[in-house]
Amino acid sequence: MKGTAMIDADTAWAAVERRDRTFDGRFVTGVLTTGIYCRPSCAARHPRRSNVRFFADGTAARAAGLRACKRCLPDDVGRDEAAVLAAIDEIRQAEDAPSLAALAQLTGYSPAHFQRVFKRAIGLSPAAYARASREERARDALSVGDSVTGAIYEAGYGSASRFYENTKGRLGMAASAWANGGAGVTIRWAVVDTTMGRMLVAATDKGVCRLSFGEDESELRRRFPKADLVEGGAAFGKLLADVVASVEAPGDFAHIPLDVKGTAFQEACWEALRAIPPGETRTYAEIAAAAGNPKAVRAAGSANARNNVAVLIPCHRVVRKGGDLGGYAYGQDIKRELLERERK
Ligand SMILES: [Zn+2]
Prior knowledge:
By secondary structure, the chain is an alpha/beta fold. Helix content is 42%, strand content 11%. The protein contains 14 helices and eight strands. A four-stranded mixed sheet has the order 3-1-2-4. Strands 7-6-5-8 form a four-stranded mixed sheet, with helices on both faces. Helix 3 crosses helix 5, helix 11 crosses helix 13 and helix 12 packs across helix 13. The protein is elongated. About 10% of the residues have low confidence. Zinc ion binds next to loops.
């Protein structure tokens, strides 16, 4: 038996009366009239106190001629504990929350039985425990200022979309322009000459919603048919200057606000792109993994292609496996130039 001394009979009986599972494994309750012994937390109806005798463990109870209760399986306490600890390890290390079936298989129990054992020990089902521990870790990671994608990855979320569901509204980009063709939204824009060529910059009051090369107002009109398009303006000037500076000397533009909208996975990919340090590159596979779904390599490629804000969401930092430059919406020359500037 665990612990230091045999628990006194009054303490033991009190534990039985309140079915205190923390006493499981510390003694067993023998019922002389039925010939059965139980763990303290057994859910069966309580015997009369006068019929009860306490034993240190199942071995002692069996020596007295008693049999293990088939309902609470008192001899499985150590096994239960080991199973729960193994499951907790698995849950905390796995990238995706393990299924109940997988945990049951790991521990050698049936799924239904393991669910009961786990819940009795922890007070939560394995699935609820996995959710709670992930949320806790996500909060911890966020509070020290990691990027969103970093936090998702640290927390071991299987996919970014589930992360967004689980953290309802705590995160996400402030998208306004992309709903309903931009209805009710004012978009300020300008086309400026840069050393990369003619660049279109458009922004709502929330942030930059389109940055592209070689486009003009007609392209903007096509994407935001219902928005109120306003060229230039003083309010837009400072943001525009910031954007131009970040293109001429790319690197530090994390402070420039964006107004973009994609699926949860696309947004996670965009966050992953923004987390690539200037001067470095990644493959689509690495972006997919950083966005929480290592298998979604094609989807990561499509998220890259759907990026509306070139440079500031640095899709030019994605290259092919093996180092080949790969494609770019505005041509390889601009991509190569951006990467060369960032390497300096
Ligand atoms: Zn029992």
